[in-house]
From TrEMBL:
Residues 223-397 form the DUF4143 domain. InterPro entries: AAA_14 (IPR041682), DUF4143 (IPR025420), P-loop_NTPase (IPR027417). The lineage of its organism: Bacteria, Pseudomonadati, Bacteroidota, Bacteroidia, Bacteroidales. Pfam families: AAA_14 (PF13173), DUF4143 (PF13635). Coiled coil: none annotated. Keywords: ATP-binding, Nucleotide-binding. The keyword Lipoprotein does not apply. The keyword Nucleotide-binding applies. This is ATP-binding protein. Residues 20-153 form the AAA domain. One of its GO terms (molecular function) is ATP binding. It comes from Candidatus Merdivivens pullistercoris.
Amino acid sequence: MYYARLIDKHLSEWASDNAHKPLLLRGARQVGKSSAVRHLGEKFKQYIEINFEKQPEYKILFRKNLDITKIIPQISAMCGKSVIEGETLLFLDEIQACPEAIMSLRFFKEDMPGLHVIAAGSLLEFALNELPTYGVGRIHSMFMYPMTFDEFLNANGEQPLIQARDSATTHRPLPGPLHEKLISLLRIYMLVGGMPEVVSRWVTTHDFIKCQEVLDDIILGYEDDFSKYKGRTDPLLLRMTMRSAAVQMTEKFVYSHVSESHKTQDIKKAVEMLVLAGILIPVTHTNANGLPLGSEANSAYRKILLLDTGLTLRLLNMAIGDTAETTARILTANVSDLVNKGAVAEQIAGLEMLRCQNPGNRHDLFYWVRQARNSQAEIDYITAFGGKILPIEIKAGTQGGMKSLWMFMREKNIDKAVRCSLENFGNFNYTDNEAGGAVRHVVICPLYAVSMMHRLLKENG
């Protein structure tokens, strides 16, 4: 069964655009790229799917030449289906297995502009890096991630709950029972994660053990892929790096914690390979003195997130042993003592911020930390809103000091911030006496409502 995804809307808009370009759908393995394309294919009179790993015989068509007017009739003859502009969706899956097919994409726009072509591949980024050119300006990209919490709710038939949540404001919070139900579902989402196959298993069984079995299969699939990284990095080191990223989640990533027997340079290379594969997501330090934030980014200070909380907790189990206590704490503990001092909450917030943005662009995550010696001041995430810098503090529960936030806002002369926690919707003002009585406004965005953050900010001016 197909569960609706946020990217469906963007794919439909692409399909209805008369000036559409060939589309590259990019993202890690098992995040639902192929399923989303097949779902879109149901809207076309004709749908053709070619998988270059399962059907290597199609590779020869692209190796002879890149003349689309010759290749398309050959594809039509081989699959027994007519390829008609405006009526056919052609899906080239696992296209990284045929670099020539990637290079041919730019010619679809020139020679068959009315044909809808989508290409995807789980290791696509490696192939793109090796090509001298693949048609920049003539190909459109979309980036896909695991399911958001909203998509998880929708898959579980909680549409009325989504509607009730979306009707809340910082001045009109949710009724207590609805707030508690959303927290309960968020706890489940922390454990299950957003990988579509795992979500589907949860919907049909409501069995955490069966979900963990699927997560284990996905992890093993990722590790099997490591041998395909074309000798760039030792597969064993890649496995160690992935597990260490789970252990070090939301902390400054320390390369020596991965392995004492490997060179730092080799570990850095392993991290970059996993980032390229979409398995790891960096959160980079920025001085945050102005926009764009990337202009003052310092990659020497990075936190690393796994692409999914469900995978993170399974990797923790592999790295440090039985995590049954962690699982129990997520499901039963008081919200102020969630897990690992809020590490999973911080991870979910960052991933939700990333996944809820426009998939037509590649987005980065940033944080700020005071680099002075013996300083512990840190802001979990820094982003931009309304042309200004916006600090976002993540709290696992409903309490916690905010000294770092006040310090940051004072230094950067910022008057608005977000506290993302398991509190209900709300907002408050803070008078900063150390800054001459300057008033700081803080919007409280529940962790289960990160997708609403921009709307809440607009409502608060």
